[in-house]
Amino acid sequence: MVGRKPLNISLYRLALTPAGLGKENERGHKISNERLEFLGDAVLGSVVAEYLFQKYPLRDEGFLTETRSKLVNRESLNETGIKIGLRTILQDYFLEKPFTGSKSLYGDMLEALVGAVYLDRGYAFTKNFILTRILLHFDIEGMISTTMNYKSKIVEWSQRENKNIDYKILEINGNQRYKEFVVALVVNSKEVATGKGPTKKKAEQEASKNACETLQIPT
């Protein structure tokens, strides 16, 4: 999976141990992959950012940020984690231990695996691992070609139709680690659509997309 024999196999065992399967140590702390996941998320984001910066030298910061977000979001990482074999490994684990994972289980494990590789082999090896064994599973050009800024469409429509628009946060669910924003798009004081997302910006984008359908705005 990684391309080399592990130098410290315990790091990889830890990376493949989600919180639901972790055991408590003598101090009562549960040993799981969450710390490695934190580290792997940072390393993955850094490598992807550099890759996009080099690949698209003429594109602006907004494009780079949005594309990176699409590559490292939970859905993308989950799918990639399954493709590289993490589900198979967990299924072997489940044979003896009852366990129900979160929706982002394989994405979390993939980030933890990146963290383990980084500690085991260093940044240069990890960068090559990400570029050659993770990013190959992403259709980057396809993601870019299907990207639609629905919020911009709504703004253009409101200016053309002389409408007042506003985005209102209805709810913020979850915890410090995983939040879900629920946002309403309000047109002339009337709520026309809602959207959900892990950030306010993504929730607004989802609300805008739903509003385009409701208001029959061509996209």
UniProtKB/TrEMBL annotation:
Any one GO BP annotation for this protein: regulation of gene expression
Co-factor(s): Mg(2+)
Uppermost EC category: hydrolase
Pfam families linked to this entry: dsrm, Ribonucleas_3_3
Ranges where the RNase III domain occurs: 1-122
Record-listed E.C. numbers: 3.1.26.3
Name the UniProt record assigns to this protein: Ribonuclease 3
UniProt keywords, alphabetically: Cytoplasm, Endonuclease, Hydrolase, Magnesium, Metal-binding, mRNA processing, Nuclease, RNA-binding, rRNA processing, rRNA-binding, tRNA processing
Domain (DRBM): residue spans on this chain: 149-217
Family assignment from sequence similarity: Belongs to the ribonuclease III family.
HAMAP family: RNase_III (MF_00104)
GO cellular component terms attached to this protein's record: cytoplasm
Binding residues for Mg(2+): 37, 108, 111
GO molecular function: double-stranded RNA binding; metal ion binding; ribonuclease III activity; rRNA binding
Protein localization: Cytoplasm
Species in which this protein is naturally found: Algoriphagus kandeliae
Gene3D superfamilies: 3.30.160.20, Ribonuclease III domain
Membrane-spanning segments: none
Assembly and binders: Homodimer.
Region (Disordered): 195-219
